[in-house]
Amino acid sequence: MASHVPASDRYWMRFDTASSRNDDLSLPKATVQKIVGEILSGSSGIAFSKEARDVLIECCVEFITLISSEANEISEKEAKKTIACDHIIKALDQLGFTDYVPAVLEAAAEHKEVQKVGREKKANKLEQSGLSLEELERLQQEQFAAAAARHG
Amino acid sequence: MSGDDTYAPKSPDLSSFHSGPTPPSEPAEPQLFLSQPSQPNFLHLQSPASTSFASAHHPHRQAPQTQQQYQLATPPQAIAHPRPTHNSNTSQPPGFGVGPPSASQHEYYSPRAASFPTPGYSQPNTGYPATQASPPQQHLPPFYQPSYRDSFQYQHYQHHPHQHPHDLIAAQAQAHHPYDYSAAGGAGYEPADAMPPRRAAAAAAAAAVAAQTASDTAGDNGSLSPAASATASAATSVVVAAAAPGAGAGAAAAPPSIEAATVKTKFPTARIKRIMQADEEVGKVAQQTPIAVGKALELFMMALVTKSADVARQRNSKRVSAQMLKQVVEGDDQWDFLRDIVGKVDGDEKGGRGAGQSQGGGRGKAENSDTDEEMGSGGGGEVAAAGVKKKRGGGRKKKGQ
C-alpha cells in the first residue's frame, strides 16, 4: 500500500508518527551549509540563502529516500534481505544517475580499504602482545574463572 | 579492587586477541598474493599496479573468479593487442598524452558533472597505471571483481562508454578509443596526484616487487604463459612505469588538496542510514551502503548547488534563493522527483501536502521554524497562531519523548 504513496509523502508521514525525532530524519544544517560552502568556494562570492539551504536539505533527504527505496526494491527482487552497495549502484543506474556510479564505487572501495587497514592493526595488536594464542586463551580462561568465582 | 581487575578486561580485550587467528595471516599477504593472486579482496590492499602486473604476465595463475570474469566480460578485440600497446605506453614519455591531463580528465565527466572537478573520477585510471599494459581482465578495477561477478553491469557499461568510462577506462581505451588511451597514459603518470600518497608509494614498492618476482618466474618457467617470453623485458619497463607513480607520490601532497577543495566534509553515515531506514520497507542495510549513498548524495548536491549558483550568476545575484533552486529543479527532468518539495517554495502555504495528512501542520512547524511566520499569515484565520502553534509543538515533543 505504501508503494502507492509518493516518496515525499512517505517521508513526511514519518514525522507525523514520530515528530519528536524530527531532526534526526533530516540532515544536519551546519554540515550541509559547510558542504555547500565548499562546493561554492570556487565560484566567487555566491552564497546560499537560508531558505534555499532548507529546501536543499529536503531535496537531499528526498534523494536518499528515493535511492534507498529503489535499492530496496532491487534487493527484494534479488531475494536479499540486506541492501548492499551493489543495489545502490543499480538503483542509481536505473534512476538516471549513472554518472554518479564510478565515484560511488570509488568511495565504497576506499572505505573497504580503510576497514582493511583497521583489521590489520588488530592483527598487529595480537602480534605485539608477545603471547601465543594458547597463552592468551589460557589467560582468558583464567579470567573467566575468576569472574565466575566472584559473581558465582 | 582485584575483583574489578579480573572482571573488567574479561572478555573484550582477550576476545579481540582471540578473534585474531585469521588476521595474523594478513601481514604475510604480499607473498601469499604474489604466488597465488586468487583472493579478490586482497586486491584492495595490494597496490593495483602490482596486482595487475603479477596477473598480467601469468594468466594461468588467475583465480577462477577472475578467469570467469575474463571470459564473460572482456571484449575480444582488447585481448588481441595487449602487448603492442603496452610497449608503446611504457616507451612514451610520461606526459605524452594527446591532450593535457586535465583535458583528459574532463573527458570522463558526464555533461552534467562537467562543471565541477570531481577528484574521485581521476582515480580509476590514475590508480592503475600498469593496468593499461595488462591483459583485459585486469582492466576491471579491483573492486569490480567482487561486486560484479555476474558481469551484467560490466557489459552494460561497455555499451555506454561515454557515460561511465572511468570504470573501464583502460579497457575501453584499448578497445575503442585510441585518443582516450593515450590520454589515460598521460594521466597514468600525472595523476599520482589523485592517489593518496600512501597508496602511490605502496603501488611503486609493490610493483617493484612484482617485477622482481615476474622476472624470476620468467627465468624459471619460460613456457608458463604466452606472455612469459616478454616478461623479462617487460619487467624492467614496468619498473619504470611504476616509478612514475612513485615519483608522483612526492608531489601527491598538493593535488589532493585540490580535490579537498571540492568537498571534504562528509555526511554523517549514521544519519544517512537512519533516513534510509525510516522507510519501513527498508530492512537491513549493509555497512558500506550509507557510504555509497553519502557519496551519491554529495554528487547530487554538487550538481544542484552548482547549477543554482549558475542561475544566481545569470541573474547577477550573490545569493542563491529558494526560487533559483526551484528553477533548476524544474528545468531538468532528472530532478522531477523533487518537484513536490520545490513546489511549495513560492510562498504558498504548503496546503497541498499538509492538507493531505492529518498532522501535516505539526510537521511543518517543527521542521522549518523559518517558514512558521509564512504559515501563520498565509494560512489565514489564526492570527495568534504562531505563538500558540509553537507551544503546542513543544508539548507534543515532550509527549513524543
UniProtKB/TrEMBL annotation, chain A:
Function: Part of the NCT transcriptional regulatory complex that acts as a key regulator of ergosterol biosynthesis and the azole exporter cdr1B. The NCT complex binds the promoters of genes linked to azole susceptibility, and especially represses the expression of cdr1B transporter.
Species this protein is from: Chaetomium fimeti
Pfam families assigned to the protein according to its UniProt record, in alphabetical order: CBFD_NFYB_HMF
GO molecular function (one): protein heterodimerization activity
Main location: nucleus
Keywords recorded for this protein, A-Z: Nucleus
One GO CC annotation: negative cofactor 2 complex
CDD domains: HFD_Dr1
Subcellular location: Nucleus
Subunit-structure text: Forms the NCT transcriptional regulatory complex with nctA and mot1.
Superkingdom of this protein's organism: Eukaryota
Name used for this protein in its record: NCT transcriptional regulatory complex subunit B
Automatic annotation (TrEMBL), chain B:
Biased composition (Polar residues): 120-137
Ranges annotated as biased composition (Low complexity): 62-78
Single Gene Ontology MF annotation: protein heterodimerization activity
CC per GO annotation: negative cofactor 2 complex
Keyword Metal-binding: no
Keywords: Nucleus
Biased composition (Basic residues): 388-401
UniProt subcellular location: Nucleus
Compositional bias annotation for Gly residues: 353-363
Domain called Transcription factor CBF/NF-Y/archaeal histone: residue spans: 266-329
UniProt superkingdom: Eukaryota
Stretches the record annotates as Disordered: 1-142, 344-401
Main location: nucleus
InterPro entries: CBFA_NFYB_domain, Histone-fold, Transcr_DNA_Rep_Reg
Assembly and interaction partners: Forms the NCT transcriptional regulatory complex with nctB and mot1.
Protein family per UniProt: Belongs to the NC2 alpha/DRAP1 family.
Protein's name in the database: NCT transcriptional regulatory complex subunit A
Species the sequence originates in: Chaetomium fimeti
